[in-house]
Amino acid sequence: MAQVEQAIPAQPPRRAQDAGGAADGEHRLVALLQRTALGELAAFEEVYRELSGPVFGLVRRVMLDRAQAEEVTQEVFTELWRLAARFDPDRGGVRAWALTLAHRRAVDRVRSEQSASARMEVAGRLAPESSAPDDVAEQVEHRLEREKVRRCLRRLTEQQRETVRLTYYTGYTQREAAELLGVPLTTVKGRLRDGLIRLRDCLGVMV
User: Fold this and answer.
1) How many whole angstroms separate alpha carbon 179 and alpha carbon 173?
2) Which part of the chain is CATH 1.10.1740.10?
3) Any idea which fold 1-122 has?
4) Which is it for the CA torsion 177, 113, 158, 92, positive or negative?
5) How far apart are CA 127 and CA 43, in angstroms?
6) Is the dihedral of CA 13, 5, 95, 158 positive or negative?
7) Which of 27, 44, 92, 150 has the greatest number of C-beta atoms within 10 Å?
8) C-alpha dihedral over 21, 26, 32, 37, to 10 degrees?
């Protein structure tokens, strides 16, 4: 693990350049990840060079602090090294998998920071005041809405879910999402359309 951490630069690299067709690039990434699963550090470094730009870009969109975004990016690639043997190409591409891990890590870090801030705020109150009944009702309603959305998101395919997250939760355009995922723009549009239809139907049933 120490070798892996040394292989990951402390500073985020420049965005990886497209070396060819999306399909060929994905096949190459799969082969590199399979070699990474066997412990080949050189293969892992190639995976890092290919994906570090998109991963850092996604994490940076979620997190405001650049230093923390760099830390999370390193954590993502450490996790890629550790979980490489579990990757299943039948369930999606390497790039989409890496971006999913990145999004989860970034969101977890943001939530952790928010929870810590909230705990400090509560601890600093000498005489906390009870919330008004209307405020409590509104907070409960918002939590229930968020939970419904989370449950419906889990019903999407992995590709649909990641496309929705990129375009609606992290602010990427459809074209930018296509570049990050390494797929044609028409594919992103199709995944987004199908995902939103399934979300709408799910939320309608759960009302």
Assistant:
1) 10
2) 1-122
3) Rna Polymerase Sigma Factor; Chain: A (1.10.1740)
4) positive
5) 57
6) negative
7) 44
8) 180
Q: Please, where in the chain does CATH 1.10.10.10 lie?
A: 139-207
Domain 139-207 is found in CATH 3.40.1360.10: no
In whole angstroms, give the CA distance from residue 195 to residue 155.
9
Please report, in tens digits, the pLDDT of each residue of the chain (207 residues total): 556 555 665 555 544 444 445 667 888 999 999 999 999 999 999 999 999 999 999 998 888 788 888 989 999 999 999 999 999 888 888 998 999 899 988 888 887 765 544 444 444 443 444 444 445 455 555 555 667 777 888 888 888 888 887 887 777 788 888 887 888 889 888 888 888 888 888 877 654
- Residue 190 CA to residue 202 CA, distance in Å, equals 18
Query: Encoding tokens for residue 22?
Result: 């999306």
Based on the number of CB atoms within 10 Å of its own CB, is 23 exposed (0-12), middle (13-18) or buried (19 or more)? exposed
Dump the DSSP string for 173-197: -HHHHHHHHTS-HHHHHHHHHHHHH
Kindly state the tokens that stand for 174.
């459809």
